[in-house]
Protein backbone atom coordinates (compact mmCIF):
# COMPACT_ATOMS: atom_id res chain seq x y z
CA UNK A 1 0.00 0.00 0.00
CA UNK A 2 1.35 3.42 -0.94
CA UNK A 3 2.56 5.57 1.95
CA UNK A 4 0.48 8.69 2.43
CA UNK A 5 2.14 12.03 3.16
CA UNK A 6 2.79 13.03 6.79
CA UNK A 7 0.83 15.61 8.74
CA UNK A 8 1.44 19.13 7.58
CA UNK A 9 -0.03 22.53 8.40
CA UNK A 10 0.04 25.67 6.33
CA UNK A 11 -1.00 29.14 7.41
CA UNK A 12 -2.18 32.27 5.60
CA UNK A 13 -1.45 35.76 6.79
CA UNK A 14 1.58 37.99 7.32
CA UNK A 15 4.53 36.85 9.44
CA UNK A 16 3.81 39.15 12.38
CA UNK A 17 0.20 38.02 12.68
CA UNK A 18 1.28 34.38 12.42
CA UNK A 19 3.89 34.79 15.18
CA UNK A 20 1.42 36.59 17.47
CA UNK A 21 -1.23 33.91 17.04
CA UNK A 22 1.23 31.08 17.44
CA UNK A 23 2.24 32.69 20.71
CA UNK A 24 -1.40 32.55 21.83
CA UNK A 25 -1.66 28.87 20.95
CA UNK A 26 -2.75 28.84 17.32
CA UNK A 27 -5.24 30.53 15.04
CA UNK A 28 -8.97 30.86 15.05
CA UNK A 29 -11.04 28.49 13.06
CA UNK A 30 -8.79 25.50 13.77
CA UNK A 31 -10.15 21.99 13.48
CA UNK A 32 -8.94 18.44 13.67
CA UNK A 33 -10.25 14.96 13.10
CA UNK A 34 -10.39 11.94 15.36
CA UNK A 35 -9.64 8.43 14.12
CA UNK A 36 -13.27 7.89 13.28
CA UNK A 37 -13.42 11.09 11.26
CA UNK A 38 -15.44 13.29 13.65
CA UNK A 39 -14.50 16.96 13.53
CA UNK A 40 -13.93 19.24 16.47
CA UNK A 41 -14.09 22.97 15.87
CA UNK A 42 -12.52 25.58 18.11
CA UNK A 43 -13.96 29.10 17.89
CA UNK A 44 -15.31 29.42 14.36
CA UNK A 45 -16.63 26.76 12.06
CA UNK A 46 -15.70 28.44 8.77
CA UNK A 47 -12.54 30.61 8.81
CA UNK A 48 -12.76 33.94 7.00
CA UNK A 49 -10.27 35.53 4.70
CA UNK A 50 -7.39 37.07 6.61
CA UNK A 51 -7.71 34.84 9.67
CA UNK A 52 -5.19 32.19 10.57
CA UNK A 53 -6.68 28.95 9.20
CA UNK A 54 -4.92 25.60 9.35
CA UNK A 55 -5.02 23.43 6.25
CA UNK A 56 -3.83 20.01 5.14
CA UNK A 57 -4.46 18.04 8.29
CA UNK A 58 -3.42 14.40 8.40
CA UNK A 59 -3.62 11.78 11.08
CA UNK A 60 -0.22 10.14 10.73
CA UNK A 61 0.09 8.48 14.15
CA UNK A 62 -1.16 5.04 13.21
CA UNK A 63 0.25 3.79 16.49
CA UNK A 64 -2.88 5.13 18.19
CA UNK A 65 -5.02 2.86 16.04
CA UNK A 66 -2.69 -0.05 16.75
CA UNK A 67 -3.30 0.43 20.48
CA UNK A 68 -7.06 0.34 20.04
CA UNK A 69 -8.43 -2.57 22.09
CA UNK A 70 -10.90 -3.67 19.40
CA UNK A 71 -8.14 -3.62 16.78
CA UNK A 72 -5.93 -5.68 19.10
CA UNK A 73 -8.68 -8.28 19.54
CA UNK A 74 -9.27 -8.35 15.80
CA UNK A 75 -5.55 -8.81 15.18
CA UNK A 76 -5.39 -11.65 17.69
CA UNK A 77 -8.33 -13.35 15.96
CA UNK A 78 -6.50 -13.18 12.65
CA UNK A 79 -3.29 -14.55 14.14
CA UNK A 80 -5.19 -17.42 15.80
CA UNK A 81 -6.89 -18.13 12.47
CA UNK A 82 -3.55 -18.06 10.65
CA UNK A 83 -2.00 -20.48 13.15
CA UNK A 84 -4.98 -22.81 12.84
CA UNK A 85 -4.82 -22.73 9.04
CA UNK A 86 -1.08 -23.47 9.11
CA UNK A 87 -1.71 -26.52 11.29
CA UNK A 88 -4.53 -27.79 9.07
CA UNK A 89 -2.44 -27.46 5.93
CA UNK A 90 0.12 -29.82 7.47
CA UNK A 91 -2.39 -32.68 7.33
CA UNK A 92 -1.99 -34.93 4.30
CA UNK A 93 -5.58 -36.20 4.36
CA UNK A 94 -7.05 -32.91 3.05
CA UNK A 95 -8.74 -33.20 -0.32
CA UNK A 96 -7.72 -30.83 -3.12
CA UNK A 97 -10.82 -28.63 -2.86
CA UNK A 98 -10.45 -28.04 0.89
CA UNK A 99 -6.73 -27.43 0.50
CA UNK A 100 -7.33 -24.73 -2.12
CA UNK A 101 -9.86 -22.95 0.11
CA UNK A 102 -7.53 -23.05 3.12
CA UNK A 103 -4.54 -22.00 1.02
CA UNK A 104 -6.42 -18.99 -0.35
CA UNK A 105 -7.26 -17.69 3.11
CA UNK A 106 -3.77 -18.54 4.38
CA UNK A 107 -2.28 -16.44 1.57
CA UNK A 108 -4.57 -13.52 2.43
CA UNK A 109 -3.39 -13.55 6.05
CA UNK A 110 0.29 -14.06 5.23
CA UNK A 111 1.24 -10.33 4.88
CA UNK A 112 -0.33 -9.53 8.27
CA UNK A 113 1.32 -12.55 9.89
CA UNK A 114 4.75 -11.61 8.51
CA UNK A 115 4.61 -8.06 9.86
CA UNK A 116 3.21 -9.31 13.19
CA UNK A 117 6.12 -11.74 13.57
CA UNK A 118 8.62 -8.98 12.75
CA UNK A 119 7.08 -6.83 15.48
CA UNK A 120 7.30 -9.70 17.98
CA UNK A 121 10.95 -10.27 17.09
CA UNK A 122 11.73 -6.56 17.35
CA UNK A 123 10.12 -6.45 20.80
CA UNK A 124 12.25 -9.41 21.93
CA UNK A 125 15.39 -7.71 20.64
CA UNK A 126 14.44 -4.48 22.38
CA UNK A 127 13.84 -6.31 25.66
CA UNK A 128 17.29 -7.89 25.39
CA UNK A 129 18.97 -4.51 24.83
CA UNK A 130 17.06 -2.98 27.76
CA UNK A 131 18.19 -5.87 29.94
CA UNK A 132 21.83 -5.24 28.96
CA UNK A 133 21.40 -1.54 29.71
CA UNK A 134 19.97 -2.31 33.14
CA UNK A 135 22.84 -4.70 33.90
CA UNK A 136 25.59 -2.34 32.73
CA UNK A 137 24.11 0.59 34.66
CA UNK A 138 24.61 -1.22 37.97
CA UNK A 139 28.16 -2.40 37.32
CA UNK A 140 31.09 -0.70 39.01
CA UNK A 141 33.26 -0.79 35.90
CA UNK A 142 30.54 0.68 33.74
CA UNK A 143 31.63 1.24 30.15
CA UNK A 144 30.18 4.61 29.13
CA UNK A 145 30.86 3.98 25.44
CA UNK A 146 29.06 0.63 25.52
CA UNK A 147 26.15 2.19 27.39
CA UNK A 148 25.85 4.94 24.78
CA UNK A 149 25.86 2.38 21.94
CA UNK A 150 23.14 0.37 23.69
CA UNK A 151 21.01 3.50 24.13
CA UNK A 152 21.37 4.37 20.44
CA UNK A 153 20.44 0.83 19.45
CA UNK A 154 17.38 0.89 21.71
CA UNK A 155 16.24 4.20 20.17
CA UNK A 156 16.58 2.73 16.68
CA UNK A 157 14.57 -0.32 17.72
CA UNK A 158 11.81 1.85 19.18
CA UNK A 159 11.57 3.77 15.90
CA UNK A 160 11.51 0.52 13.93
CA UNK A 161 8.71 -0.88 16.10
CA UNK A 162 6.59 2.24 15.48
CA UNK A 163 7.15 1.89 11.72
CA UNK A 164 6.29 -1.82 11.79
CA UNK A 165 3.08 -1.12 13.70
CA UNK A 166 2.06 1.40 11.04
CA UNK A 167 2.83 -1.20 8.35
CA UNK A 168 0.69 -3.69 10.24
CA UNK A 169 -2.29 -1.32 10.34
CA UNK A 170 -1.93 -0.74 6.59
CA UNK A 171 -1.87 -4.51 6.03
CA UNK A 172 -5.08 -4.85 8.08
CA UNK A 173 -7.02 -2.40 5.87
CA UNK A 174 -9.47 -4.42 3.70
CA UNK A 175 -8.28 -4.36 0.10
CA UNK A 176 -10.45 -3.36 -2.85
CA UNK A 177 -9.81 -5.70 -5.80
CA UNK A 178 -10.54 -2.83 -8.20
CA UNK A 179 -7.89 -0.48 -6.75
CA UNK A 180 -5.38 -1.25 -9.50
CA UNK A 181 -7.94 -0.69 -12.29
CA UNK A 182 -7.89 2.03 -14.91
CA UNK A 183 -10.97 4.25 -14.98
CA UNK A 184 -13.46 6.06 -17.17
CA UNK A 185 -13.88 9.55 -15.71
CA UNK A 186 -16.77 11.79 -16.71
CA UNK A 187 -17.46 15.41 -15.83
CA UNK A 188 -21.03 16.65 -16.26
CA UNK A 189 -22.34 20.17 -15.75
CA UNK A 190 -24.95 20.65 -13.00
CA UNK A 191 -28.60 20.89 -13.97
CA UNK A 192 -30.27 22.28 -10.87
CA UNK A 193 -28.33 25.50 -10.27
CA UNK A 194 -25.92 27.81 -12.04
CA UNK A 195 -25.86 28.03 -15.81
CA UNK A 196 -22.75 29.62 -17.30
CA UNK A 197 -20.93 29.22 -14.00
CA UNK A 198 -21.58 25.44 -13.96
CA UNK A 199 -20.25 25.02 -17.47
CA UNK A 200 -17.14 27.07 -16.77
CA UNK A 201 -16.52 25.19 -13.53
CA UNK A 202 -16.95 21.84 -15.33
CA UNK A 203 -14.21 22.85 -17.77
CA UNK A 204 -11.92 23.85 -14.89
CA UNK A 205 -12.54 20.51 -13.18
CA UNK A 206 -11.69 18.72 -16.42
CA UNK A 207 -8.42 20.67 -16.60
CA UNK A 208 -7.73 19.88 -12.93
CA UNK A 209 -7.98 16.11 -13.44
CA UNK A 210 -5.88 16.38 -16.58
CA UNK A 211 -3.24 18.17 -14.50
CA UNK A 212 -3.45 15.49 -11.82
CA UNK A 213 -2.96 12.76 -14.43
CA UNK A 214 0.16 14.57 -15.59
CA UNK A 215 1.32 14.93 -11.95
CA UNK A 216 0.89 11.15 -11.42
CA UNK A 217 2.35 10.28 -14.84
CA UNK A 218 -0.90 8.61 -15.98
CA UNK A 219 -2.24 8.31 -19.51
CA UNK A 220 -5.15 10.70 -20.20
CA UNK A 221 -7.18 9.80 -23.29
CA UNK A 222 -10.12 12.06 -24.21
CA UNK A 223 -13.08 10.00 -25.41
CA UNK A 224 -15.70 12.73 -25.66
CA UNK A 225 -15.69 16.51 -25.20
CA UNK A 226 -18.83 18.61 -25.63
CA UNK A 227 -17.99 22.32 -25.22
CA UNK A 228 -20.39 25.07 -24.14
CA UNK A 229 -20.51 28.82 -24.64
CA UNK A 230 -18.02 31.24 -23.06
CA UNK A 231 -15.32 28.57 -22.85
CA UNK A 232 -17.43 26.22 -20.72
CA UNK A 233 -18.03 22.50 -20.94
CA UNK A 234 -21.26 20.47 -20.97
CA UNK A 235 -19.80 16.97 -20.70
CA UNK A 236 -16.51 15.15 -21.18
CA UNK A 237 -15.39 11.55 -20.80
CA UNK A 238 -11.78 10.41 -20.53
CA UNK A 239 -9.93 7.16 -19.95
CA UNK A 240 -7.19 7.40 -17.34
CA UNK A 241 -4.68 4.56 -17.19
CA UNK A 242 -1.75 4.07 -14.84
CA UNK A 243 -0.71 2.75 -11.45
CA UNK A 244 -3.53 2.52 -8.86
CA UNK A 245 -5.71 5.03 -10.71
CA UNK A 246 -9.01 3.79 -9.26
CA UNK A 247 -7.63 3.71 -5.72
CA UNK A 248 -6.75 7.40 -5.87
CA UNK A 249 -9.77 8.71 -7.78
CA UNK A 250 -12.64 6.47 -6.66
CA UNK A 251 -13.72 8.94 -3.96
CA UNK A 252 -13.80 11.89 -6.38
CA UNK A 253 -17.16 10.74 -7.71
CA UNK A 254 -20.05 12.94 -6.62
CA UNK A 255 -21.35 16.51 -6.72
CA UNK A 256 -18.84 19.38 -6.50
CA UNK A 257 -20.12 22.87 -5.64
CA UNK A 258 -18.58 26.18 -6.70
CA UNK A 259 -19.14 29.66 -5.25
CA UNK A 260 -17.67 32.61 -7.13
CA UNK A 261 -18.26 35.84 -9.05
CA UNK A 262 -18.32 34.73 -12.71
CA UNK A 263 -15.61 36.21 -14.90
CA UNK A 264 -17.38 35.68 -18.26
CA UNK A 265 -20.90 35.02 -19.52
CA UNK A 266 -24.23 36.61 -18.75
CA UNK A 267 -23.89 35.99 -15.00
CA UNK A 268 -20.71 38.10 -14.84
CA UNK A 269 -22.70 41.31 -15.40
CA UNK A 270 -24.40 41.01 -12.00
CA UNK A 271 -21.08 41.07 -10.09
CA UNK A 272 -22.33 38.97 -7.20
CA UNK A 273 -21.43 35.55 -5.87
CA UNK A 274 -23.15 32.73 -7.75
CA UNK A 275 -23.43 29.09 -6.77
CA UNK A 276 -23.28 26.19 -9.20
CA UNK A 277 -22.62 22.46 -9.25
CA UNK A 278 -21.09 19.81 -11.48
CA UNK A 279 -20.81 16.04 -11.19
CA UNK A 280 -17.80 13.74 -11.41
CA UNK A 281 -18.41 10.09 -12.31
CA UNK A 282 -15.75 7.41 -11.81
CA UNK A 283 -16.19 4.03 -13.49
CA UNK A 284 -13.51 1.34 -12.94
CA UNK A 285 -12.18 -0.63 -15.88
CA UNK A 286 -10.57 -3.82 -14.53
CA UNK A 287 -7.92 -5.40 -16.71
CA UNK A 288 -9.88 -8.66 -16.90
CA UNK A 289 -13.29 -7.13 -17.55
CA UNK A 290 -15.02 -8.16 -20.77
CA UNK A 291 -18.68 -7.38 -21.35
CA UNK A 292 -20.32 -9.40 -24.10
CA UNK A 293 -22.74 -7.31 -26.15
CA UNK A 294 -25.06 -8.77 -28.76
CA UNK A 295 -24.98 -6.51 -31.86
CA UNK A 296 -28.76 -6.99 -32.11
CA UNK A 297 -29.13 -5.11 -28.81
CA UNK A 298 -27.45 -1.98 -30.17
CA UNK A 299 -28.79 1.01 -32.07
CA UNK A 300 -26.01 3.05 -33.65
CA UNK A 301 -26.74 6.59 -34.85
CA UNK A 302 -24.42 8.98 -36.66
CA UNK A 303 -24.76 12.75 -36.67
CA UNK A 304 -22.76 15.91 -37.19
CA UNK A 305 -20.50 16.96 -34.35
CA UNK A 306 -21.59 19.88 -32.22
CA UNK A 307 -19.29 22.59 -30.98
CA UNK A 308 -17.06 25.32 -32.31
CA UNK A 309 -16.09 23.42 -35.44
CA UNK A 310 -12.76 23.93 -37.15
CA UNK A 311 -10.98 21.60 -39.55
CA UNK A 312 -14.30 20.24 -40.86
CA UNK A 313 -15.10 18.55 -37.55
CA UNK A 314 -18.77 19.49 -37.74
CA UNK A 315 -19.31 19.25 -41.50
CA UNK A 316 -19.58 15.43 -41.75
CA UNK A 317 -21.62 12.77 -39.97
CA UNK A 318 -18.62 11.59 -37.93
CA UNK A 319 -20.17 11.68 -34.44
CA UNK A 320 -21.48 8.36 -33.14
CA UNK A 321 -24.16 7.57 -30.55
CA UNK A 322 -24.66 3.96 -29.37
CA UNK A 323 -27.78 2.93 -27.44
CA UNK A 324 -27.94 -0.39 -25.58
CA UNK A 325 -31.62 -1.19 -26.08
CA UNK A 326 -32.17 -3.66 -23.17
CA UNK A 327 -30.83 -1.22 -20.56
CA UNK A 328 -31.25 2.16 -22.25
CA UNK A 329 -27.60 3.04 -21.51
CA UNK A 330 -26.18 5.54 -24.02
CA UNK A 331 -22.62 6.40 -25.06
CA UNK A 332 -21.56 8.86 -27.69
CA UNK A 333 -18.33 10.27 -29.07
CA UNK A 334 -17.61 13.14 -31.46
CA UNK A 335 -13.99 13.74 -30.56
CA UNK A 336 -12.36 12.94 -33.92
CA UNK A 337 -13.22 13.35 -37.61
CA UNK A 338 -13.04 9.58 -38.03
CA UNK A 339 -16.38 7.85 -37.61
CA UNK A 340 -14.60 4.53 -36.94
CA UNK A 341 -12.48 6.01 -34.15
CA UNK A 342 -15.50 7.67 -32.58
CA UNK A 343 -17.42 4.40 -32.76
CA UNK A 344 -14.58 2.51 -31.07
CA UNK A 345 -14.37 5.06 -28.24
CA UNK A 346 -18.15 5.12 -27.79
CA UNK A 347 -18.16 1.31 -27.57
CA UNK A 348 -15.50 1.41 -24.84
CA UNK A 349 -17.57 3.90 -22.85
CA UNK A 350 -20.67 1.77 -23.29
CA UNK A 351 -18.87 -1.35 -22.05
CA UNK A 352 -17.58 0.52 -18.99
CA UNK A 353 -21.07 1.74 -18.15
CA UNK A 354 -22.59 -1.70 -18.66
CA UNK A 355 -19.90 -3.23 -16.46
CA UNK A 356 -20.59 -0.67 -13.73
CA UNK A 357 -24.31 -1.36 -14.02
CA UNK A 358 -23.66 -5.08 -13.55
CA UNK A 359 -21.40 -4.40 -10.56
CA UNK A 360 -24.00 -2.06 -9.08
CA UNK A 361 -26.60 -4.81 -9.08
CA UNK A 362 -24.25 -7.18 -7.29
CA UNK A 363 -22.93 -4.60 -4.81
CA UNK A 364 -25.51 -1.85 -4.36
CA UNK A 365 -23.52 -0.18 -1.61
CA UNK A 366 -20.39 0.35 -3.73
CA UNK A 367 -19.51 4.05 -3.56
CA UNK A 368 -18.50 4.19 -7.20
CA UNK A 369 -21.91 3.14 -8.54
CA UNK A 370 -22.94 5.63 -11.20
CA UNK A 371 -26.38 6.23 -9.72
CA UNK A 372 -24.95 7.07 -6.30
CA UNK A 373 -22.34 9.41 -7.75
CA UNK A 374 -24.71 11.32 -9.98
CA UNK A 375 -27.38 11.70 -7.28
CA UNK A 376 -29.64 14.64 -8.04
CA UNK A 377 -26.72 16.92 -8.92
CA UNK A 378 -28.07 19.32 -6.31
CA UNK A 379 -26.16 21.26 -3.65
CA UNK A 380 -27.42 18.99 -0.87
CA UNK A 381 -25.50 16.05 -2.38
CA UNK A 382 -22.18 17.91 -2.55
CA UNK A 383 -18.98 16.20 -1.41
CA UNK A 384 -16.74 19.26 -1.82
CA UNK A 385 -17.08 23.04 -2.09
CA UNK A 386 -14.81 25.43 -4.00
CA UNK A 387 -15.22 28.97 -2.67
CA UNK A 388 -13.21 31.28 -4.94
CA UNK A 389 -14.20 34.45 -3.05
CA UNK A 390 -12.74 33.11 0.21
CA UNK A 391 -9.92 31.21 -1.54
CA UNK A 392 -10.96 27.96 0.14
CA UNK A 393 -11.63 24.33 -0.79
CA UNK A 394 -13.56 22.23 1.74
CA UNK A 395 -14.17 18.50 1.61
CA UNK A 396 -17.40 17.87 3.50
CA UNK A 397 -16.71 14.18 4.20
CA UNK A 398 -13.59 14.74 6.31
CA UNK A 399 -13.61 18.45 7.15
CA UNK A 400 -10.36 18.95 5.23
CA UNK A 401 -9.75 22.62 4.34
CA UNK A 402 -7.05 24.05 2.09
CA UNK A 403 -6.29 27.49 0.68
CA UNK A 404 -4.76 28.81 -2.56
CA UNK A 405 -7.58 27.59 -4.77
CA UNK A 406 -5.83 28.55 -8.01
CA UNK A 407 -2.91 26.29 -7.14
CA UNK A 408 -5.36 23.55 -6.12
CA UNK A 409 -7.14 23.69 -9.48
CA UNK A 410 -3.86 22.94 -11.26
CA UNK A 411 -4.24 19.35 -10.08
CA UNK A 412 -0.80 18.93 -8.52
CA UNK A 413 0.41 18.38 -4.98
CA UNK A 414 -2.45 20.30 -3.33
CA UNK A 415 -5.10 18.02 -4.89
CA UNK A 416 -2.97 14.95 -4.12
CA UNK A 417 -2.81 15.94 -0.44
CA UNK A 418 -6.61 16.18 -0.24
CA UNK A 419 -7.09 12.88 -2.08
CA UNK A 420 -4.68 11.16 0.32
CA UNK A 421 -6.52 12.61 3.33
CA UNK A 422 -9.87 11.27 2.06
CA UNK A 423 -8.23 7.95 1.23
CA UNK A 424 -6.73 7.69 4.71
CA UNK A 425 -10.10 8.50 6.27
CA UNK A 426 -12.03 5.93 4.22
CA UNK A 427 -9.44 3.19 4.74
CA UNK A 428 -9.43 3.82 8.48
CA UNK A 429 -13.22 3.65 8.51
CA UNK A 430 -13.09 0.43 6.46
CA UNK A 431 -10.73 -1.13 9.01
CA UNK A 432 -12.89 -0.09 11.97
CA UNK A 433 -15.98 -1.47 10.21
CA UNK A 434 -14.16 -4.77 9.62
CA UNK A 435 -13.20 -4.85 13.30
CA UNK A 436 -16.78 -4.14 14.37
CA UNK A 437 -18.15 -6.76 11.98
CA UNK A 438 -15.67 -9.32 13.28
CA UNK A 439 -16.63 -8.54 16.87
CA UNK A 440 -20.33 -9.03 16.13
CA UNK A 441 -19.67 -12.34 14.41
CA UNK A 442 -17.18 -13.61 16.99
CA UNK A 443 -17.89 -12.03 20.37
CA UNK A 444 -15.56 -14.52 22.02
CA UNK A 445 -12.97 -16.89 20.67
CA UNK A 446 -13.09 -20.56 21.62
CA UNK A 447 -11.00 -21.14 24.70
CA UNK A 448 -10.59 -17.36 25.29
CA UNK A 449 -12.53 -15.32 27.80
CA UNK A 450 -14.38 -12.22 26.69
CA UNK A 451 -12.19 -9.96 28.75
Automatic annotation (TrEMBL):
Coiled coil: 68-95
Prokaryotic-type class I peptide chain release factors domain location: 304-320
Region described as Disordered: spans on this chain: 1-34, 358-389
GO molecular function, one term: translation release factor activity
GO biological process, one term: mitochondrial translational termination
Bias (Basic and acidic residues): 361-370
Protein biosynthesis as UniProt keyword: yes
GO cellular component, one term: mitochondrion
Keyword annotations of the record: Coiled coil, Protein biosynthesis
InterPro entries noted in UniProt: PCRF, Pep_chain_release_fac_I, Pep_chain_release_fac_I_sf, Prokaryotic/Mito_RF
Similarity annotation: Belongs to the prokaryotic/mitochondrial release factor family.
Name this protein carries in UniProt: Mitochondrial translational release factor 1
Gene it is expressed from: mtrf1
Amino acid sequence: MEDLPPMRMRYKGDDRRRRRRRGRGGGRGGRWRTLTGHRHASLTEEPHWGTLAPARFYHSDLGDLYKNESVQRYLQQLMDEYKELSEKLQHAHLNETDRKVLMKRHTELLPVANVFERIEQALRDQEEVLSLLHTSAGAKDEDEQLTQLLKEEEAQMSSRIVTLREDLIKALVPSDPLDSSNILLEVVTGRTTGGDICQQFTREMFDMYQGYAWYKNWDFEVLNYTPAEYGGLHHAAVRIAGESVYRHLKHEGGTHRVQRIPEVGLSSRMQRIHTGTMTVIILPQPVEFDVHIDPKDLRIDTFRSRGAGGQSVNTTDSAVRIVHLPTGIIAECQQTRSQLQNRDRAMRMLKARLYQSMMGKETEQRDSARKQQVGSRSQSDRIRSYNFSQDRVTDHRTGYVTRDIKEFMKGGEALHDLICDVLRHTETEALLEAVESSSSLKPTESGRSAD
